[in-house]
Amino acid sequence: MSGAGAPDFFYREAQRLGYVARSAFKLLQIQKQYKLITSGSSVLDLGCAPGAWLQVACQSLGPLNKGGVVVGIDVKKVKVPQLHCDSRAQTVCADVMNLPRNRIRALSPQFLESLPRIRLYQSN
Ligand SMILES: C[S@@+](CC[C@H](N)C(=O)[O-])C[C@H]1O[C@@H](n2cnc3c(N)ncnc32)[C@H](O)[C@@H]1O
């Protein structure tokens, strides 16, 4: 919302397009200009609430069958937004400045992305 009380353009656009915050447009612009996230990328979002960047990151991964993973961490509990996100997005409630060493590896996108393959391997 703008300081004057009336919702600003980006606030209204976020509502209209199903983004949980207008910050989505910052990452959309970065993505349009630099294409940081490509098909199948691994993305770690430090301080992810309320999840707008999770939405843009997840939709930037391309088709589900191309893989990729988006992990969001925040001290606040964050529910993965339903719109623009799919099973490749997940969140963790933690203070990124005080993560115990043994949790860091378990939170890495590479490790999380490998889990389905590990499960698949174990089930065969
Ligand atoms: C500006 S918001 C992030 C907005 C988010 N990128 C989005 O677009 O939806 C910054 C977030 O960082 C989180 N944060 C700040 N320090 C943190 C820490 N040490 N560990 C985890 N999260 C932290 C805050 O709780 C806050 O939700």
Automatic annotation (TrEMBL):
Cited Gene3D superfamilies: Vaccinia Virus protein VP39
Key word Nucleus present: no
Keywords: Methyltransferase, rRNA processing, S-adenosyl-L-methionine, Transferase
A molecular-function term among this protein's GO annotations: rRNA (uridine-2'-O-)-methyltransferase activity
Domain of life: Eukaryota
Residue intervals of the Ribosomal RNA methyltransferase FtsJ domain: 19-102
Family, as annotated: Belongs to the class I-like SAM-binding methyltransferase superfamily. RNA methyltransferase RlmE family.
Name assigned to this protein: rRNA methyltransferase 2, mitochondrial
